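Appendix C: a fully annotated inverse folding record. The material below is reproduced so that readers can follow the format used throughout the book. The structure is listed first as tokens, followed by the designed sequence.
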């Protein structure tokens, strides 16, 4: 499985996710400190690439999903924003330049399922960072509540699909494999009209979970020193009750 099902409809993806901008302040802070070119890894439809470019920074967006990148490119062109978009695998980046600042948002690091893939992506990032370059990325915190979600259909959230003018109720089914540390999700979107389900769309995705001590060793062994670990993008300190882990790392 290529883990692409959740991303095969870029327009619907934006309708559901464009409102999430919590990363922007922290990314802007480091963009000001480090300068560009800034590389957004697994950039998707440019949810953070485009807002940073609008602030005047030089951005490069990298993603493996051609459809997401094409949609991002159209959005940037409509706003008359110059961004370089590249279809590349983050585990084997082949960029023409190095960057003082790279970031990966949307929990995209969890798409690298094996120890080998995690090492490859971090080595690839390390080789494309300038001396003292900064990497910022976030992943979900592997709490018991997060991992032991019910394997039956559970309500998650509701949003409005502005294209179809329908309320969409979102449900998930989760199955965690503790040997692989991978959570297998089925997401069910139910399009409602006058209280009735008129359409249903299902997608599957699998995400690797990494524990804090495991991440410390992983980053250190791949030449990255942790400067900060937060529980959110507002720089709150990590605790046992956190939902996310936000890492700020420097190239050693």
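Designed amino acids, in order:
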């Amino acid at each position: 499985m290529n883990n692409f099902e959740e991303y095969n409809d870029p327009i619907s993806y934006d309708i559901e996710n464009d409102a999430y901008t919590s990363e922007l302040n922290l990314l802007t802070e480091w963009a000001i400190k480090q300068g560009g070119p800034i590389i957004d890894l697994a950039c998707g439809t440019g949810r953070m690439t485009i807002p940073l470019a609008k602030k005047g920074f030089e951005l490069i967006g990298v993603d493996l999903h051609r459809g997401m990148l094409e949609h991002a490119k159209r959005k940037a062109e409509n706003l008359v924003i110059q961004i370089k978009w590249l279809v590349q695998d983050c585990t084997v980046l082949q960029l023409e330049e190095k960057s003082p600042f790279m970031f990966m948002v949307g929990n995209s690091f969890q798409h690298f399922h094996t120890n080998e893939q995690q090492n490859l992506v971090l080595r690839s990032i390390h080789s494309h960072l300038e001396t003292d370059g900064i990497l910022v990325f976030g992943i979900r915190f592997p709490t018991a509540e997060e991992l032991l979600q019910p394997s039956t259909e559970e309500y998650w959230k509701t949003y409005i699909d502005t294209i179809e003018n329908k309320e969409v109720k979102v449900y998930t089914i989760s199955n965690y494999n503790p040997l692989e540390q991978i959570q297998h999700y089925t997401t069910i979107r139910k399009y409602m009209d006058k209280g009735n389900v008129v359409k249903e769309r299902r997608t599957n995705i699998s995400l690797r979970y990494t524990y804090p001590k495991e991440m410390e060793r992983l980053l250190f062994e791949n030449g990255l020193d942790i400067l900060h670990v937060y529980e959110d993008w507002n720089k709150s300190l990590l605790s046992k009750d956190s939902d996310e882990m936000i890492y700020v790392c420097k190239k050693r």
